[in-house]
Amino acid sequence: MGSNVVIQGKLDTDRTKVQEVYVNSAGQLATVPPSGALSQFNRLAAGSICNYTNCTADTLVKSGAGIVYGIIVTAALSAATVDIRDSTTAGAGTVLFTIPASAAVGTIIQFGTGIVVNSGIFADFNGTGTINVLYV
Questions:
Q1: Chain-wide mean pLDDT for the chain?
Q2: Where are the CATH 2.60.120 domain residues in the chain?
Q3: Among candidate residues 41, 55, 66, the one with its CA nearest the CA of residue 99
Q4: CATH ID of 51-135, from 2.50.20, 2.60.120, 1.20.120, 1.10.150
Q5: In three state form, how does the secondary structure of 45-79 look?
Q6: Whole-model pTM?
Q7: Fewer CB near the last or first residue (10 Å), C or N of the chain?
């Protein structure tokens, strides 16, 4: 066994809100999140659930802390790159990765465990094309 399961339904001590109840690796019920839980994102680190934002020009994908899981090119890029930044504005912050110029439709760049960002996720276009950014 050894896997963790989330069960919804336990009321807190004030009986006003529901707390998550976990089954830990020893098979015991616990209200403490299991190892690997990312409470700020309400996800287990091994989870595969993410959001996406379709970008056709400079786009603030997410403001604040988050995780980038990858991108999918849905309309071929021109002969210019797209930078994915830990930032909320174009040309600022840290470039996390660069999508190559002329990337074809169907190009997938993925990061299995994701890249944590602190400021935000910004798609900084240097040309034309369309991408989906996968994130939480």
A1: 83
A2: 51-135
A3: 55
A4: 2.60.120
A5: CCCCCCEEEEECCCEEEEECCEEEEEEEEEECCCC
A6: 0.67
A7: N
